Amino acid sequence: MSIYPPLARRWHRIGSIVIALPFLIVIVSGLLLQMKKEFTWIQPSTQTGARTVPELSFEQILSVTAANPEAEVASWEDIDRLDVRPSEGMLKVQCNNGIEVQLDASSGAVLQVARRRSDLIESLHEGSFFHDGAKMWIFLPSGLVVLFLWISGVYLWWLPHGMRRRKKKRRLTKGS
User: Fold this and answer.
1) Are residues 123 and 176 in the same domain?
2) Which residue segment(s) compose the domain that 32 sits in?
3) pTM to 2 decimal places
4) Which of 65, 85, 116 is the last residue before a domain boundary?
5) Are residues 132 and 161 in the same domain?
6) Which value, to the nearest 10 degrees, does the dihedral of the CA atoms of residues 160, 161, 166, 168 take?
7) Same-domain check for residues 71 and 19
8) What are phi and psi of 171, to 5 degrees?
9) Of 73, 118, 139, 175, which alpha carbon lies 20 to 30 A from 59's?
């Protein structure tokens, strides 16, 4: 049983309008995330420390980070997460204000201080930037509509090709 083509076209058109803005956000943010290692504006490049064995204590990490005014760190509540990279001899301190401080994992020297925008872009991509409910009530349904658009688009594309194929097959069977 096939879907009546004008109805499929109408659903396809309405679905496209409904998801236009959320899908645009997902596309643009996804493209930016694909390029995050290429542009330091999105995500700071990873520096390399002197040795591969981390020797800093948590207190040293906190005091070195707090000494940097851009980080705006007074306590552990101001730090979102630590990213330790032993193979590169460094660690990243990601602050709640979006600043990333990269430290040499053995000496504690500050290797780089820069704004990290990739986390913001990721929250836009998944919809949590707007509201926690936006992920489940706007972006998930939009994803399902995109899946439906893909299926209906393939159907609408295949329909004329399939009809031509069947007509050609009928002509060949009648002619033999």
Assistant:
1) yes
2) 1-41+118-176
3) 0.72
4) 116
5) yes
6) 110
7) no
8) -60, -40
9) 118
Task: Grade residue 176 by pLDDT with cuts at 50, 70 and 90.
Answer: low
Residues 32 and 40: their CA atoms lie apart, in Å, by 11
Rounded CA-CA distance 119/142 in Å is 22
Beta pairing partners, 49: none
CB 141, CB 124: distance < 8 Å: no
Report how far apart the first and last C-alpha atoms of the chain are (Å, whole number): 29
12: Cβ contacts below 8 Å, ≥ 6 apart: 149, 152, 153, 156
Cα separation values, 145 from 5, 48, 150, Å: 18, 44, 9
- pLDDT > 80? residue 67: yes
Per DSSP, which regions of 55-151 are E strands?
Answer: 79-85, 90-95, 99-104, 110-115
Q: What is the DSSP string of 140-161?
A: HHHHHHHHHHHHHHHHHHHHHH
Tally the domains of the chain.
2
Strand order in the sheet with 90-95: 79-85, 90-95, 99-104, 110-115
Who's near 158: CB < 8 A, 6+ residues apart?
A: none
Give 111-167 pLDDT, tens digit per residue.
999 999 999 999 999 999 998 898 899 999 999 999 988 888 888 888 888 788 888
Cα torsion angle, 51, 55, 58, 64, sign: negative
